[in-house]
Structure to design on (614 residues):
């Protein structure tokens, strides 16, 4: 949560920072602020609300200067108002700081500083850290970077920080622990710094992903210097970015979410490109090949994630157990990490995360690693923290996902899990050659089938109109359609604020059935497969209580058509692959309903794309 951007060089800093903040708004949009160094003045502007508010606020202000820092906030300590916005200044106004993370021991640090006579304007932990740095800096004869290093030694918590100061106008100082930070090395001896590479990519492709407990000094005279928090000099590892600018634009769509939904035929193809060949009957995931034997022989695999990625894990559980006959346990990362779980060296722990930065998932992985388990990652963001701490892993290659609601990342995660399950099944001999070949060809056909569903958008929009005023909704599915029901409910609630719940269809009669009346839309996945007849019975039970049924069915289905209020047909595929198709109509339904309700689809209230606090 929170996005940070900084620039130092010869160009005007303000436009670079504002553009970067807009790219990072997905990380939080409670408030935004900048601090700019111009002609010896440190100008600080901050405003509650989105970056656009900040822009309007600064229109008649001095926005000049070629060094600056900017922040877009997802509030943790203190309500989202102007005062609590970042940057925070030291009490003498000499230093300003932006911060993403949480200083857990801020209260005791604050009390100590208050005893020394400092007072605080905001309720934030960040102001405490800024004044702690100020206190160390002005009471000794050391550099600002050294003062920051000493201050950080007193800090418990997570941080990505950038400091700017009036006394050091040719220098920015950055530090990270548990929150991401990337340094861009510009072509004109200039430097960029940001929470991810999106604000940097149009200026340079040379980046350094900072490691935990590193401090970077971006100095226009001395270049980039990197130190550990223990004061050991380090050599920056410069990488080439693979990100393309077009991927960060809406490209004619009204919202990023809609663009990302429509990108799925491409993103699924990108995900399996070079990893499967149906004609030659092979599947390979280069990133995990050295660990496949170990995974295949594992007694169990633990999959950990949060939110949508957790739903992908649940689909993975069905795939791994069914195809590869490997026992899988799926865990919420946030629960797993605090539960004293039984983990040993034979265990394989797979973390799934779009961002690769989710704090709980990262911490759960670290716990598993400390107990000797093999840890693997399935991430979308290249170079993210999870992808760097894992022993091995596979990227989903879905491209940047900017809408807060996860769509194409989910289908790409399920695609990687399908490839993994197939590869393991083949290795273990738990799948027949003909089923293996059929599944590979079916998987190759998924992108065009997704396109067929996207082409029914008008019908889905019409159905959305009928339910846009609902207050509650139920989503039902069985087998691997159960996680799709959970995902459908999550999509609806997070962007349209309609209360929605996902249930295994048979569980309905153990409680939720009491909710059903003529006002209640019930979205059911009733595709052909093992549980089809059972689901049809569940639909009858809902209809008997006057609930409204919106069913996702296999093309040509006549039975459910005769009972349901609306049906959305999806192309036939193998039962194992249905989640890749059945989730698409739910994404579109949620999208249209949210737009009709006037909700901010890409940036729903209270949420942020990357949850880097626990
Ligand atoms: O980046 P991650 O996949 O680790 O994020 C996990 C969840 O925060 C995320 O999936 C969230 O639930 C989505 N906004 C749902 O659409």
């Amino acid at each position: 949560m929170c996005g940070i951007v900084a620039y130092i060089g010869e160009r005007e800093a303000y436009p670079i920072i504002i553009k970067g903040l807009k790219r990072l708004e997905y990380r939080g949009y409670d408030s935004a602020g900048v601090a700019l160094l111009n002609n010896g003045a440190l100008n600080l502007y901050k405003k509650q609300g989105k970056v656009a508010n900040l822009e309007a606020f600064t229109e008649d202000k001095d926005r000049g200067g070629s060094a600056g820092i900017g922040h877009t906030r997802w509030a943790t300590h203190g309500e989202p108002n102007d005062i609590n916005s970042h940057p925070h200044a030291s009490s003498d106004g000499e230093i300003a700081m932006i911060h993403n993370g949480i200083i857990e021991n801020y209260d005791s640090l604050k009390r100590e500083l208050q005893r020394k006579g400092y007072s605080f304007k905001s309720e934030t932990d960040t102001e405490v850290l800024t004044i702690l740095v100020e206190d160390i800096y002005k009471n000794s004869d050391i550099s600002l970077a050294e003062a920051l290093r000493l201050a950080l030694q007193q800090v418990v918590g997570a941080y990505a920080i950038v400091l700017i100061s009036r006394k050091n106008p040719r220098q920015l100082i950055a530090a990270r622990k548990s929150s991401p930070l990337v340094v861009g090395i510009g072509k004109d001896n200039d430097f960029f710094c940001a929470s991810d590479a999106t604000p940097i990519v149009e200026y340079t492709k040379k980046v350094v992903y900072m490691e935990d407990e590193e401090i970077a000094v971006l100095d226009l005279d001395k270049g980039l210097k990197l130190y550990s928090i223990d004061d050991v000099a380090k050599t920056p590892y410069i990488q080439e970015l693979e990100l393309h600018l077009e991927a960060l634009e809406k490209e004619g769509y009204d919202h990023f979410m809609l663009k990302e939904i429509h990108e799925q035929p491409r993103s699924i193809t990108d995900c399996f490109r070079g990893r499967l060949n149906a004609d030659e009957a092979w599947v390979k995931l280069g990133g995990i090949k050295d660990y496949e034997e170990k995974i295949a022989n594992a007694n169990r695999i633990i999959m950990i994630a949060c939110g949508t990625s957790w739903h992908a894990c649940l689909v993975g559980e069905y795939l791994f157990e069914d195809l590869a006959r490997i026992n899988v346990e799926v865990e919420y990362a946030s629960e797993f990490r605090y539960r004293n779980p039984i983990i040993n060296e034979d265990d394989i722990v797979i973390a799934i995360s779009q961002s690769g930065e989710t704090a709980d998932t990262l911490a759960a992985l670290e716990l598993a690693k400390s107990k000797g388990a093999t840890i693997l990652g399935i991430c979308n963001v290249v170079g993210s923290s999870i992808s760097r701490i894992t022993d091995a892993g596979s990227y989903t290659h879905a491209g940047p996902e900017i809408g807060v609601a996860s769509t194409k990342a989910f289908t790409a995660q399920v695609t990687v899990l399908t490839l993994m399950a197939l590869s393991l099944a083949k290795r273990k001999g738990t799948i027949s050659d003909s089923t293996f070949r059929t599944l590979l060809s079916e998987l190759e056909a998924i992108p065009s089938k997704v396109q067929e569903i996207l082409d029914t958008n008008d019908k889905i929009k019409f159905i959305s109109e009928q339910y846009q005023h609902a207050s509650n909704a139920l989503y039902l599915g069985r087998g691997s359609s159960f996680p799709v029901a959970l995902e459908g409910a999550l999509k609806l609630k997070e962007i349209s604020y309609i209360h929605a719940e996902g249930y295994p269809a048979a569980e309905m009669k153990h409680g939720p059935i009491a909710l059903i009346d003529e006002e209640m839309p019930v979205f059911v996945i009733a595709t052909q497969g093992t549980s089809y007849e059972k689901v049809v019975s569940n639909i009858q039970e809902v209809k008997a209580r006057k609930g409204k049924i919106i069913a996702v069915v296999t093309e040509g289905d006549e039975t459910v058509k005769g009972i349901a209020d609306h049906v959305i047909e999806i192309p036939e595929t193998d039962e194992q692959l249905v989640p890749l198709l059945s989730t698409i109509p739910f994404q579109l339904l949620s999208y249209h309903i949210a737009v009709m309700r006037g909700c901010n689809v890409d940036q729903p209230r209270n949420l942020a794309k990357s949850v880097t606090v626990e």
Summary: The chain has a mean pLDDT of 94. Residues 251-453 form a domain with the Rossmann fold fold (CATH 3.40.50.10490).
